[in-house]
Amino acid sequence: MNIHEYQAKRLLQEYGVPVPRGYAATNSREVETAISHLGDDMIVVKAQIHAGGRGKGTFTDGYKGGVKVVKNREEALDAANHMLDNTLVTAQTGPEGRKVQTLYFTEACDIEHEYYLAIVLDRETAQSMIIASTEGGMDIEAVAEATPEKLIRVPISPTMGLRHYHCRRVAFALGFEGEQVKQFARILTGLYKMYWDKNAMLVEINPLVKTKQGQLMALDAKVSFDGNAIFQHPDIQQLRDLNEEDPKEIEASKHNLAYIALDGNIACMVNGAGLAMATMDIIQSFGGSPANFLDVGGGANEDQVTAAFKIILSDPNVKGILVNIFGGIMKCDVIARGIVAAAKNVDITVPLVVRLEGTNVEAGKQILRESGVALTPADSLVQAAEVIVAQVNSAG
Ligand code: ADP
Ligand code: MG
User: What pTM was computed for the model?
Assistant: First the structure.
């Protein structure tokens, strides 16, 4: 789960990381209040969307920049009027962009240098990884690509946690001296504590700046939390912004379905995450492209299967459906009845291929045959993938 910059900065502040003073606003009244709190100095107006690259982004009406440094109240108001309810396209939003429904107004800093600092869960080493760079402010992937030697990586063992020597090592690698080493150690310690306490998978400050006055501060913040641990953190759950999520994924989570939208055109309905991954792979290897990941779980019932069909079909890109069920704990006849009932409930307008295997498979196939539902049965996953890809491709 992701949160907005302004929410992440509040959290950072609770953990002792300095951030510029700022106020969020979602309508014109709040915009005025926020601006009046900041006075008539340099202000930064920042579009709040769950995507980075805002500074270099462009709104769909041609207005440039989702992060604007302005000189006074009038300019702040003007920037706010352009941004609020406008759609911002950045390198991370995809061409459709994101509608800006919240703005953040914050004090402008005199920047001397921009750094990058993040802590990320590194699955390969099963450790947390501190990633830092003197090349902050820009796209860190580009830095990693062009000048990988400029990325400092320090692994932190989950049993040892962050120690002072880790902080000093990163601080020295970034070129800090004296007072700034102390400031940096406080920031990294706070950042790590927040990452650990809140089950975050990523905390990223880009840029962390040194101001002309010698202060270290977080000017941007991104935090992603582990969705599987979120039930332990009601305070974090409250920060969820459904406007930023795919409506299909929200609907799926209501029905306990693990669904992730992708950009292909063959929808998959599978039980078990591993089988779902294999199904997506095999569609791809036959030249097709999966429209989603969908794991209906080990004990899906008729209602869930119906909901799954509805969610799949609400995606206008879907040109075919591949159902791939292995009846292990669940029996194939139960699933077949679920599919038939769902198909009668939902108008399935695209080719449907069903592959069943496992317990009571014959009974399941018979139910499908006798149901009158327009579908193509398949005996193997290879055959199922081949057939659905051919059907979708021939439909053009
Ligand atoms: P994004 O990463 O989405 O483009 P940032 O918040 O990192 O958005 O802002 C982009 C750039 O704008 C920063 O790298 C920094 O140079 C500048 N900037 C952002 N906030 C401030 C601020 N409070 N004061 C001065 N400059 C800022
Ligand atoms: Mg940034």
Answer: 0.84
